[in-house]
């Protein structure tokens, strides 16, 4: 199947030199996104022509830099009659029994006009449907470029934006919660490459944050070279508990910023990225955010700063991060009552003197891989495993134990560690999260998407 991809306005409105650079980056990102899938990509000034299996559409919709995706037929012609004949055959079944219109655009020198194409092709199709130029059910688009025409009836919205990696690199402070994941998605759409930094305060957030970073990079960060930076922060929390409770939350955020600022310089990041939104929690009042801004010399990007929580959740659901996001109390809240919402720098620095700040300055970090080790599983590898099915529906898996992610997370500690496990979910995200948690507890466990799971067993039946 062929797809005609139209560049986003962020690309088309640039100078020719900049547009060529962005086109090249988008081309490379498309190659990475389509991966081992059989495909070809042709770069044109007006867009890109991709030939790939139909299932590639789901991937193309998640590559930033693309505004419109149209499954298309490409017609080579010498005369208008050649074009009309081919166009009629392509459009007949699509307009049959429906109200339709024909729209044409044209680039190049021809002995006919776009209006001629619309009028004459419409006349050839009128026996199969009803012409309705005002409110058609289907529109046959004929986009002519020289002696080539693209004929299509669908315009599927892409995400637009800049190609990932075209606008610099940021260090994202990822908590595993709803907001920080959505901020990363917006960063990708801005064309930014993203490294992730996670401050571990204890609990299960590490597995959530790592699974989240992997999901975002794999499904939205085509072209990203991002890394996951793990920073143990428990000793810092112990120091913060020495200061007055009202400033503890703000001090924790201040410490995050100091460490992230240092690591951003080491990574040559152009800015920090956070999921902060004005007024959402105590550390995110405008006064406290301004205080934090003044505490470091690195630019801070807050894509969600003026968004309501309901809007953020809506985006999280659409991009697929909501289900595994941490939804408990504010991750960086170590005080609950009488917290400072209008902090003062002199007071914060005064409280800092009560701590052993060398604990913060001497923190070391670890880089964890974002590319999961690919396990080439076969039926023999999985047949003796207990299958935990985290899907909410779909084809039944014989012998599997179906449960929600929440139930699995709360109960796996009680499972038999002498058994081997296989975790399955729709896209592989929830199963990857549970796998990381179980591996940390010493379980023998693998995970996969339902597509991969059923592929293994269907392949085994054809042998």
Query: How many strand units?
Result: 19
Helical amount among residues, as a percent range?
25-40%
Helical stretch count?
Answer: 17
Structural class: alpha/beta
CATH superfamily of the largest domain: HUPs
Mean pLDDT: 92
Distance between the termini: 28 Å
CATH class identity of the largest domain: Alpha Beta
Q: Percent of residues in beta strands?
A: 15-25%
Largest sheet: 9 strands, mixed
Tell me the CATH topology of the largest domain. Rossmann fold
Low-confidence regions: none
Short recap of the structure:
With 463 residues, this protein is of the alpha/beta class. It has helices spanning 9-12, 16-34, 56-60, 80-95, 114-125, 178-189, 205-219, 234-240, 248-266, 286-294, 309-319, 345-352, 358-361, 379-382, 405-411, 429-440, 450-461; strands spanning 2-7, 40-44, 47-51, 66-76, 99-107, 130-131, 138-145, 148-152, 156-160, 169-173, 193-200, 228-232, 271-273, 299-301, 366-368, 386-389, 401-402, 420-425, 444-449.
Walk me through what this model shows.
The strands form three sheets. Strands 1, 2, 3, 4, 5, 6, 7, 8 and 9 form a nine-stranded mixed β-sheet that branches. The protein has a six-stranded mixed β-sheet with strand order 14-13-10-11-12-15, with helices on both faces. It has helices spanning 9-12, 16-34, 56-60, 80-95, 114-125, 178-189, 205-219, 234-240, 248-266, 286-294, 309-319, 345-352, 358-361, 379-382, 405-411, 429-440, 450-461; strands at residues 2-7, 40-44, 47-51, 66-76, 99-107, 130-131, 138-145, 148-152, 156-160, 169-173, 193-200, 228-232, 271-273, 299-301, 366-368, 386-389, 401-402, 420-425, 444-449. It folds into three domains: 2-160, 2-Layer Sandwich (VC0802-like), CATH 3.30.2130.30; 169-368, 3-Layer(aba) Sandwich (Rossmann fold), CATH 3.40.50; 379-461, 3-Layer(aba) Sandwich (Oxidized Rhodanese, domain 1). By secondary structure, the chain is of the alpha/beta class. Helix 4 (80-95) packs across helix 5 (114-125). Helices cover 38% and strands 22% of the residues.
């Amino acid at each position: 199947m062929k797809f005609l991809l139209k560049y986003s306005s962020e690309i088309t409105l640039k100078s020719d030199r900049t547009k060529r650079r962005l086109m090249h980056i988008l081309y490379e990102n498309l190659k990475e996104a389509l991966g081992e899938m059989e495909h070809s990509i042709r770069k044109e000034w007006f867009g890109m022509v991709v030939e790939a299996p139909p299932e590639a559409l789901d991937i193309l919709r998640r590559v930033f830099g693309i505004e419109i995706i149209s499954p298309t037929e490409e017609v080579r012609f010498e005369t208008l009659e050649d074009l009309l004949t081919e166009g009629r055959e392509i459009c007949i079944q699509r307009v049959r029994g429906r109200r339709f219109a024909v729209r044409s655009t044209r680039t190049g020198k021809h002995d006919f006009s776009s209006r001629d194409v619309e009028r004459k092709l419409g006349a050839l199709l009128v026996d199969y449907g009803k012409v309705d130029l005002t409110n058609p059910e289907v529109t046959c688009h004929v986009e002519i470029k020289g002696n080539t025409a693209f004929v299509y009836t669908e315009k599927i919205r892409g995400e637009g934006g800049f190609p990932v990696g075209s606008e610099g690199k940021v260090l994202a402070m990822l908590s595993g919660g709803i907001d920080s994941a959505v901020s990363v998605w917006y960063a990708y759409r801005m064309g930014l490459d993203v490294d992730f930094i996670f401050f571990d305060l204890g609990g299960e957030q590490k597995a959530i944050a790592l699974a989240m970073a992997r999901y975002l990079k794999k499904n939205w960060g085509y072209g990203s070279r991002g890394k996951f930076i793990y920073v143990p922060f428990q000793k810092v929390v112990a120091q913060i508990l020495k200061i007055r409770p009202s400033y503890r939350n703000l001090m924790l955020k201040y410490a995050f910023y100091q460490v992230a600022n240092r690591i951003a310089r080491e990574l040559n990041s152009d800015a920090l990225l956070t999921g902060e939104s004005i007024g959402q929690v105590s550390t995110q009042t405008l006064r406290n955010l301004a205080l934090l801004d003044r505490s470091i010399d690195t630019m801070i990007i807050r894509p969600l700063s003026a968004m309501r929580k309901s809007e953020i959740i809506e985006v999280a659901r659409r991009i697929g991060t909501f289900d595994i996001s941490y939804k408990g109390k504010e991750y960086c809240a170590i005080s609950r009552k009488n917290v400072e919402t209008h902090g003062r720098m002199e007071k914060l620095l005064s409280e800092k003197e009560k701590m052993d700040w060398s604990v913060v300055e001497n923190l070391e970090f670890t880089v964890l891989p974002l590319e999961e080790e690919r396990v080439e599983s076969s039926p023999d590898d999985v047949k003796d495993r207990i299958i935990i099915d985290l899907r909410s529906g779909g084809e039944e898996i014989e012998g599997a134990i179906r449960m929600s992610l929440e139930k699995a997370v709360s109960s796996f500690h009680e499972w038999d560690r002498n058994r081997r496990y296989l975790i399955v979910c729709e896209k592989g995200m929830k199963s990857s999260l549970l796998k990381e948690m179980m591996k940390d507890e010493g379980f023998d466990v693998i995970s996969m998407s339902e597509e991969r799971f059923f592929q293994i067993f269907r392949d085994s039946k054809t042998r």
